[in-house]
Structures are given as C-alpha cells and as structure tokens.
Design a protein that fits this description.
By secondary structure, this protein is mostly helical. It has three helices and no strands. The chain has one domain. It comes from Saxophila tyrrhenica.
Length: 141
C-alpha cells in the first residue's frame, strides 16, 4: 500500500452477549425509561387511590355508626323523660310531705336540665323549668 491510499477503517463491533449472536446492542446516550418503571409509578398511584378510597369509606361508616348511636341515645333519653314525667306526676298526686315534694321538684328540675342539654348539646345556658313544675313551685314555696 502506498501512503496516498487511505486504508479502509474497520468498525469495531461489540461482542454479542447472547449465545446465538442476535441480541440487542446497547445504544449510546441516555438510557430509556423502562416500561416497568412507568408501571411501578402507575401501581403506586393506584395504591394511593385505593388507600384514599378505603379511608373515605372507613370515615363514612364511622360517621354513620355515630349517627345511629346518637339516634339510639336520643330515643333512650325520650323514653327516660316520659317515664320520669309519669312517675313524678303520680308522686305529685299522692300525699307527700312538703320536704319530699321539694326534693322531687329539685330532682325534676335537674332532670329537665339534663334532657334539655341532650336535646340541644351546644346550648349550655340556663334552662327554664317546665310549666307544670313551675306551678308546683308556686304552690309549695
């Protein structure tokens, strides 16, 4: 060969990693994001969505249970109130001493305050006694 003739250059190839020789060669530049990584992010988003849904469902079921409990307790208070009123009316009609009547009136007033607080939990102001207990107070006191 003479110096004027350029030699043809050989391209160096990478040896194939697969035994049959037709494997994918790595390309130059930034490696591509694998589909596996994208699906991992999607799986994480799905996991977060499912956790949020479960939290909302637990919160709603807890609220529903608490509403039912409040309803049951309110009914119980109403039954207690009616029972107490029947009992106190019977006692007022019977022959009680003045001290016993005052004690009954005091208990009735306190019971009405408690029932009033149960009906209006945010209202903690002074409650007014019922008209029938007020009429009794005028007669006794």
């Amino acid at each position: 060969m003479t110096m004027e003739e350029p030699r043809p250059r050989k391209k160096r190839g990478r040896p194939s990693t697969s035994p049959d020789g037709d494997g994918d060669d790595r390309k130059r530049g930034r490696p591509r994001v694998d589909k596996q990584d994208e699906s991992a992010a999607d799986r994480r988003r799905t996991q977060i969505r499912m956790a949020q849904r479960a939290y909302r469902q637990r919160k709603e079921s807890t609220l529903e249970e608490l509403r039912k409990r409040v309803s049951e307790l309110t009914k119980t208070i109403e039954v207690m109130n009616n029972t107490f009123n029947v009992c106190s009316d019977r006692l007022y009609a019977s022959s009680l001493t003045q001290d016993q009547m005052l004690d009954l009136n005091e208990v009735a007033t306190k019971f009405e305050q408690l029932v009033g607080e149960a009906r209006n939990p945010g209202d903690h102001g002074p409650s007014t006694p019922s008209p029938r207990h007020e009429a009794f107070r005028c007669c006794v006191g």
